[in-house]
Amino acid sequence: MRGVRSLPPAASGPAWRAMMAAVSRARRIGPGRGARRLATRSTILTLGAGSMAGCAPGAPGAPLGAPAISLFGAYFPAWLLCAFIGVIGAVLVRVVFIRVGLDDMFPVRLPVYVAVAVIIGLLVSFFGFGR
Hints:
Layout (H helix, E strand, L loop, with lengths): L13 H16 L3 H20 L15 E4 L2 E4 H23 L8 H21 L2
Helix pairs in contact: 1-2, 3-4
């Protein structure tokens, strides 16, 4: 076979072969559709890897993991507590709306109270954990 080289042991997997096939296909096709598709894929992979680099715990300026709360000897994520507080807050807001008479004015109640729960949960997260 013309142009076939032996690959190093680490570069002989199926992902490596697929990548090399795509590169050679793009070279054969030239600056057409295949080359653009390869460039688009590599751009997406590069942007994805770059955006995820900030999520690494050792990244400069990045927090060391998600906030956790120790309850009963186990660590629970802080968003779980914020969601629970949001749901309880939405129930209390509903009780207040029923007593005031605003609950009957909502044509669709579920989205209103879900939004109230999300807003309360986000406010607790922001003011409680600074995120």
